[in-house]
Amino acid sequence: MMSPQEKQKIAERIHQEITKTELDIARLEAANSPVSPDNAIGRISRMEAINARAVNNSALLLAQQRLRGLKSAMSNLNEPEFGSCVECGDLISLERILLMPHVKMCVGCAEQYES
Ligand SMILES: [Zn+2]
After folding, report:
1. Domain extents for the chain?
2. Cα-to-centroid distance, 100 and ligand 1 (Å)
3. How many other β-carbons are positioned within 10 Å of the β-carbon of residue 68?
4. pLDDT of residue 85
5. Which residue(s) pair with 91 in the sheet?
6. How far is the centre of ligand 1, averaged over its atoms, from the C-alpha of 107 (Å)?
7. CA-to-CA distance for 69 and 104, rounded, in angstroms?
8. Distance of CA 8 from the midpoint of ligand 1 (Å)
9. Distance 79 CA to ligand 1 centre (A)
10. Residue ranges of the chain with per-residue pLDDT less than 70
11. Is 94 exposed, middle or buried (0-12, 13-18, 19+ CB in 10 A)?
12. C or N terminus of the chain, fewer CB within 10 Å?
């Protein structure tokens, strides 16, 4: 189990990540606003604009997914089993939790599970 200090540290990091991800989402959403056909796109061709939009859209979906994972990690933070691997009970590393907040298994078990 994690100490309250460790949990506090994780809560702060998750909170930072949430703020960062929300900013990303706001930026991506702004970039996603429809370009009026009257607008001069400049040297960027229509195809390029459409491609850029698609890339931007998938980045937006990823960011939204990440935000949901971070928020659910945040709300699970007070569960006694938070941060422990559901398979072996070992602590999952902080970096792993922050990178993939939805994970419930440590690296070793996840690898076994996937193979
Ligand atoms: Zn494990």
Report:
1. 4-83
2. 15
3. 13
4. 93
5. 84
6. 7
7. 11
8. 22
9. 17
10. 1, 34-44, 115
11. middle
12. C
